[in-house]
Structures are given as C-alpha cells and as structure tokens.
Amino acid sequence: EPEVTQTPSHQVTQMGQEVILRCVPISNHLYFYWYRQILGQKVEFLVSFYNNEISEKSEIFDDQFSVERPDGSNFTLKIRSTKLEDSAMYFCASSMGAGAGTGELFFGEGSRLTVL
Amino acid sequence: KNEVEQSPQNLTAQEGEFITINCSYSVGISALHWLQQHPGGGIVSLFMLSSGKKKHGRLIATINIQEKHSSLHITASHPRDSAVYICAVNPGNTGKLIFGQGTTLQVKP
Q1: Could you tell me which of A44, A58, A47 has the C-alpha nearest to residue A23?
Q2: pLDDT tens, A2-18?
C-alpha cells in the first residue's frame, strides 16, 4: 500500500541551526501539507502546497519556514534558524485533491524535532 | 472558544464495549476528518465525511451538518483500539484543517 515517508524520524539540533525535514508523498498525489504537534497540544496546520507553490499558510509559518518540492518526489520543510519553541513533531501529509471528494489525507509517521 | 470540541477528553472502556466519541464544531466546513494517533505518534486517517454516515469494519462515523456535530463509534472494542482519536474539520478546500484536542481511549482486556 502506498505511504508517505518522512526522514529523519528524530532530529536533535542546537538553537539557531538550520533544519530540513524531508517527506516523500504518495506518487500520484497533488496536494502536500505540513502540520506540527507540540508535545501535549493539538495538531496545527502549517502550510499547504499545490502546483509548486504555497496555497495557504498559517500564522505560525513565518519567514523562518520554507517549503520546497525540489525534484518532483521530495517535499521538504526548512526551518532557517531554530528556536526552542520549534521543538515538536512535524507531520507531512498528501492528498489527491483538496475538496470533499478526493481530499482524504495520508500522513507520514512524523519527524520529531528537539531544539536544545 | 475552540472551533472544534471533542468529548470526552479521556475514555476508559472494557473490551467488547460500544464506544462513542463526539465532535462539535462552530465553523462551516467542506469535510470532517476522523484520525487515529498511535502511542508512537503516527497519524492514520480513518474517515473523511461531508454528509451522512460511513462504516469501515468496526468503526462507524456519522455527521450532521445542520447541527455541526459528528460522532465516531467503535463496536466490540478491543485493546488494540487504544489510541488518541482526533476530529479535524476543513473549512475550505486547502487542507488547512482545524483540529480538536483529541480523545484518549484506553480499552482494557
């Protein structure tokens, strides 16, 4: 069964360092997303990406964050200069469509980021 | 006020019991998702609903758009159903889901 894969599963970094989280969405999906979950809190939307551009982003997704689909298979989330409060589980997801008909989401297993 | 509220927050059941988890929301939506989060943290999509009812195995999800309410039912619960169940709504068509706080279910043998 096709699945969304994320790497790394866990990354520990020092505050101020750049981090890149990688995702390989399901191959025929067209919509890609990043969500995050701070320990003990709700899952939060970060950004959605379609047709090689950001279609929507949340207030959390400030200038420190960027996304890219560099080669048609990977979908990356970059945090330029990590802060302590960026420590969270980051989930990548993909879907065939975005509406009620084909917008079922498929999630990766998550990348846990710990900023020291 | 949270836009998506789930109840109960925590639920303990005996194996075999019928379980209901409720979700109320306050915004207009195009779809509602029920998700399962494993103890290890991974998230699996259980259902996406825009109307009516869906069934998959022992799981049933219903939605009442007029009342802005959805329920997830688990029949003949089993310890392997122990997980966090999350309701999330899609107010538009961009995947910008609004998540509930989750319901932690423990099913005891």
Answers
A1: A47
A2: 799 999 999 999 999 99
Contact A109 B42 (CB under 8 A): yes
Torsion of CA B42, A67, A63, A48, to 10 degrees: -70
Closest CA to A27 of A104, A111, A95: A95
DSSP for chain A, written as a single string = ----EEE-SEEEE-TT--EEEEEE--TT--EEEEEEE-TTS-EEEEEEEETTEEEEE-TT--TTEEEE--SSS-EEEEESS--GGG-EEEEEEEES-SSTTT---EE---EEEEE-
Measured between beta carbons, the chain A residues lying within 8 angstroms of B40 are 109
pLDDT tens, residue by residue, B34-91: 999 988 888 999 999 999 999 999 999 999 999 999 999 999 999 999 999 999 999 8
> In a mutagenesis test of the B interface, which of A10, A38, A105 is the best target, namely the one with the most B β-carbons within 10 Å?
A105
